[in-house]
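not sure who needs this but someone in the group chat was asking about X-Pro aminopeptidase from Lactococcus lactis so here u go. i didnt clean anything up, its just raw.
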Amino acid sequence: MRIEKLKAKMLTENIDSLLITDMKNIFYLTGFSGTAGTVFLTAKRNIFMTDSRYSEMARGLISDFEIIETRDPISLLTDLSASEAIKNIAFEETVDYAFFKRLSDATPGLELLATSNFVLELRQFKDDTEIDLIKKACAIADEAFMSALKFIEPGRTEIEVANFLDFKMRDLEASGISFETIVASGKRSSLPHGVATSKMIQFGDPVTIDFGCYYEHYASDMTRTIFVGSVDDKMRTIYETVRKANEALIKEVKAGMTYAEYDKVPRTIIEEANFGQYFTHGIGHGLGLDVHEIPYFNQSMTENHLEAGMVITDEPGIYIPEFGGVRIEDDLLVTENGCEVLTKAPKELIVI
């Protein structure tokens, strides 16, 4: 079904052939999870190319494709292009110049077209199997967070907390972390991407933890901010504002909501609390095989609409330099009439 949808898109865009080199896109289309592979699609043929290390694996995994063993797939494109009488080859925009130059040299006389989102557009909409895998990745993150609450204490370093979470998620059958775990404590919590350091966590610190894992190729991405020992009134106000923004968006999400509205709902709450200048990033992103994938959101996107089957993040934050910050992030499954919150870890203000 995925290949059929992709070929329908090719037909609409007058694309004779499509070369796919991104390994996550290749996994999405074929189920192949090795590190060397190329997909070449024409109107009549589905071709998968890999080297001798993976040819047997590919034949066991991939159906409805011709498997060709080669260490140099680009060199085959001239013959393949001639045999199919194609006039153009579309390739993914993520390729580097060296790849493009080799492709151009190997296919003289053919028009080369850069495509940005053909496969990514398909990947926006998750099927039931994908949703179940994302739910499992979220459940692993939830459980790891609850364990971390018992581990975090004054004197622990941010790196110790990050390592604890990473190891715990692997212990819970995650195949890996979905990005470098963020642990930012004290004044460092004002850094939206404050990667863990050797700083010791102190009594009275806010601690923002942004982390996730992969489970059978699919990602989770969650953020919680907790407090160690105590929390002052200003930080409590900031926390409750962020939580209100997060939860207000959850109540509004449903298929048909514009991307602009998705951004506006939480941003308005933060602005009305006079913290608007301290919410410095987008409200969220898509989630799936990549921890950051389309869709992305901003207030100018009035023509784009949420659709059922999308998995997206809801991550408002307030970051005051030299003071501290708070972010709360959940993963949401968009449905026709609302959304399902996939991350279940508590969001009430936690002081440990």
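also The chain has two domains: 2-123, 128-341. if thats useful
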